[in-house]
Amino acid sequence: MSRPAIAICAAMLVVPSIARAQLVGRDLPRMGTFEISGGALWSGGYSFETALANETRNPTTGTAPLTLFQGKPRLDTATGAEAHLGMYLGRRVSIEGGVQFSRPSLTVRTSADFENAPETTAASPITQYVIDGSLLYQFRSGRLGPFVSVGAGYLRQILENNSIVETGNEIHGGGGVKYWFGGGRRFGFRAEARVSSRSGGVSLDALAKRRLVPAVSAGLVYLF
């Protein structure tokens, strides 16, 4: 066989392979593609108003309440896990549902004791769930794809021994990046940072208020 014929045969074998590889890289995601992801989670904490333990004075010593001690409550930061299941509405837009699980501690630091007792800190663990839904927009369809997300969810916090269950709601926004391994773009890495505005749940404040809670997550993602 002549050299030109060999070259033509080789081209006929190589070019379709390259085209198929390029096509696979462009095939996913598309409308109807599902995405599942999961990984580790870090969730921020927040402080409550300082609480005063007051006692009514003996009228002979004054009318103002006597403060026995003051307490500074706080919901600490926590690590946990999260998982998402999403569906693409197009190459760049998708919707997803997710669940977050973490175990922060509710701590109260007491100080300014009337009898000059030393400061103490008491802690009670909380089991915390967030179930949410989000809308995502992907900025590009290459191996490295940044995205933004917005959504809302349901908050459930359970104090130690299931003694108290508090619920609330949240709205969130954030962004992240997905990095796909290999040309098939089915398996990859996902990292995301978001801020959640929460209402309800465990609260020691006199008046209800929304609180901003940051969260960062990282894990694996798979398309199917």
CATH fold topology: Porin
DSSP summary: helix tally:
1
Cα-atom radius of gyration: 27 Å
Instruction: Write the H/E string, N to C.
Output: HEEEEEEEEEEEE
Got a strand count? 12
Q: Assign the structural class, choosing from mainly alpha, mainly beta, alpha/beta, alpha+beta, or little secondary structure.
A: mainly beta
Kindly state the percentage of residues in helix.
10-25%
Q: Shape, please? A: elongated
In the CATH hierarchy, what is the class?
Mainly Beta
- Please list the strands of the largest sheet in the order they lie side by side: 1-5-6-8-9-10-11-12
Instruction: Detail the poorly predicted runs.
Output: 4-25
Terminus-to-terminus distance: 45 Å
Biggest sheet architecture: 8 strands, antiparallel, barrel
**CATH architecture term:** Beta Barrel
Structural write-up:
Helix content is 11%, strand content 60%. With 224 residues, it is mainly β. It has one domain: Porin (Beta Barrel). Strands 1-5-6-8-9-10-11-12 form an eight-stranded antiparallel barrel. A hairpin with a 5-residue loop joins β9 and β10 (165-181). The longest helix has 25 residues, at 3-27. The model is unreliable at 4-25 (pLDDT under 50).
